[in-house]
TrEMBL record:
Basic and acidic residues: bias regions: 1-11, 20-44
Keyword annotations of the record: 2Fe-2S, Cell membrane, Disulfide bond, Electron transport, Iron, Iron-sulfur, Membrane, Metal-binding, Oxidoreductase, Respiratory chain, Transmembrane, Transmembrane helix, Transport
GO CC annotation terms, alphabetical: plasma membrane
Transmembrane regions: 52-73, 85-108, 155-174
Name of the molecule in the record: Cytochrome bc1 complex Rieske iron-sulfur subunit
InterPro entries named among the record's database cross-references: QcrA_N, Rieske_2Fe-2S, Rieske_2Fe-2S_sf, Rieske_Fe-S_prot, Rieske_Fe-S_prot_C
Pfam family, one: Rieske
Domain Rieske residue range list: 225-326
Membrane disposition: Multi-pass membrane protein
Family the entry assigns: Belongs to the Rieske iron-sulfur protein family.
Principal subcellular localization: membrane
């Protein structure tokens, strides 16, 4: 017999064996159940209960620490106070959440029934009898957790779950430094005749000082004299760029918003509000370092790449009698990312 014939017969035998296999495998059933230490030892069971209570207590203390930190360490306006507030609030909330989560997991693994169960698959809509049976199963689960007989456990759980929402609600209802007037995002410091000045020293900028390809980080004149200069700066910062006039594409409704190729756009990214500040002179592209949204400065700061959905708002500018760059008006649209009352 040739090697070819032998290989053909072997292939046929394999095919025959494959077709004679069983259609279904026998259900092996559940693996052998191994009781936990707490199932047979009341002391171990009580110890597990105390551990769950301890974890819920950690959550309660974490929530109380959050409340104290919220009032004791307000964010303020300096980087140091903001960092201190974020760290204390973040750590306390972490303990509040971690306590509840680990307590729930440990309760289920150490105290509740751990016998494996299986059910036959059934139609999606259960019968009334099945639904009544489901209610009984829920009651059985409540009885299995022994929540009715474990008073301390129940009190600690209820205390942790009842107090934790305060860490979410408190910042919403507190009036310390809170301002929910979203209309303020629709306007900034800029107004007609206000000079463009360099950030951070506040030096007025002459049009003659801006050469083609140069970039200026700009703030409004008099920003540092405002009661809350950082709040105003967060809305009013501008990036000033000069292009060759022939490279600039101006929409009909924006004619006259630039001056001899000098354009000014908001530095606040329209995606999530990061500062847009990386300018590429050859392509006229402006990049946001956070999520790589890219805007075309030569064409109305339109989005050419990335998650941002809208162009950067443009600040209309001109020059005054002394040759200094000044604003023609405020932005004609809200700056920054979307919010719930925004029309554009």
């Amino acid at each position: 017999m040739s090697n070819h014939d032998s290989g053909h017969e072997a292939t046929t035998d394999v095919a025959l064996r494959d077709t004679t296999g069983p259609d279904r495998f026998e259900d092996p059933g559940h693996p052998e159940h191994h009781p936990r230490l707490g199932d047979n030892d009341p002391k171990a069971n009580k110890k597990a209960e105390r551990q769950v209570v301890f974890l819920f207590t950690i959550s309660i203390l974490g929530t109380l620490a959050f409340i104290v930190a919220y009032f004791a360490f307000p964010p303020g306006t300096s980087p140091e106070t903001m960092r201190r507030s974020n760290i204390t609030l973040g750590l306390s909330m972490a303990f509040a959440l971690l306590g509840i989560g680990t307590a729930a997991v440990h309760w289920a693994k150490a105290l509740m029934n751990d016998h494996e169960k299986s059910e036959e698959r059934h139609a999606q809509r259960s019968t009334d009898e099945t639904r009544e049976a489901a209610v009984e199963v829920l009651k059985e689960g409540a009885a299995d957790s022994a929540i009715g007989r474990r008073g301390v456990l129940k009190v600690s759980m209820i205390g942790a779950l009842a107090l934790f929402p305060l860490s979410i609600v408190l910042p919403l209802i507190g009036n310390i430094g809170e301002d929910w007037d979203v209309s303020k995002f629709k306007r900034t410091m800029w107004r007609k005749g206000l000079k463009l000045t360099t950030d951070p020293d506040g030096r007025p900028i002459k049009a003659s000082d801006v050469t083609i390809g140069s970039v200026f980080h700009v703030i409004p004149e008099g920003l540092h004299e405002k009661p809350h200069p950082l709040d105003e700066k967060a809305k009013s910062v501008v990036l000033l760029v000069r292009l060759a006039p022939e490279d600039l594409k101006e929409a009909p409704d924006r004619e006259g918003w630039s001056y001899n190729g000098i354009v000014a756009y908001s530095k606040i990214c329209t995606h999530v509000g990061c500062p847009v500040a990386l300018y590429e002179q050859q392509t006229h592209h402006l990049l946001c370092p956070c999520h790589q949204s890219t805007f075309d400065v030569a064409d109305g700061a339109k989005v050419v790449f990335g998650p941002a959905k809208r162009p950067l708002p443009q600040l209309p500018i001109t020059v005054d009698d002394e040759g200094y760059l000044v604003a023609q008006s405020d932005f004609h649209e809200p700056i920054g990312p979307s919010f719930w009352e925004r029309l554009k």
